[in-house]
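Fresh eyes needed here. Kindly weigh in on this sequence plus structure tokens:
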Amino acid sequence: MIVGWDANCFKLLVDALAASSDCASIKAIEKMRLDGSYIPLDDKNWILQEWSDCTGGTSNEIAQDWIAEQLASDFIRIIAMSADQDCRKVLTQAGTPRKDAKLVALMVSIGTEVLLSLDIDLYEPKLKGKCKEHQRKRLVEGRAGSVCKLIEKKFKLLVQTPENFCA
């Protein structure tokens, strides 16, 4: 199975690695290994740059070392990707920011089955900054947003949290 990771979920993973702690992102990696899944990166390094921008600072060295190890073990694979333009257009019309639409379009272009994300822009972007944290959390964890449902129905890509992926 191909499982994409958005930058925020990747940052949670890197933070957990840095703190030697356990979290849903670590459990998701363990589940992926058991299932024989892998993480795709695009051959133009767009996703890698998103990850790097999000992790920054002292965590960045940890992130770079982890990525190098996973590339060597083929758990992360670099794949030629070209963003699905129909997907990008549909998502931006639904209110998804362009960079988030691009990530989904890249994942769709290679047949990714799951995209791990906690970003409200991939669930219900119109509520970004307009709802309380507990409402956002309920929306994301329940996959109740119109955009995540659209992505699944139209593009056969399941957007979910690491917690839901592990359940």
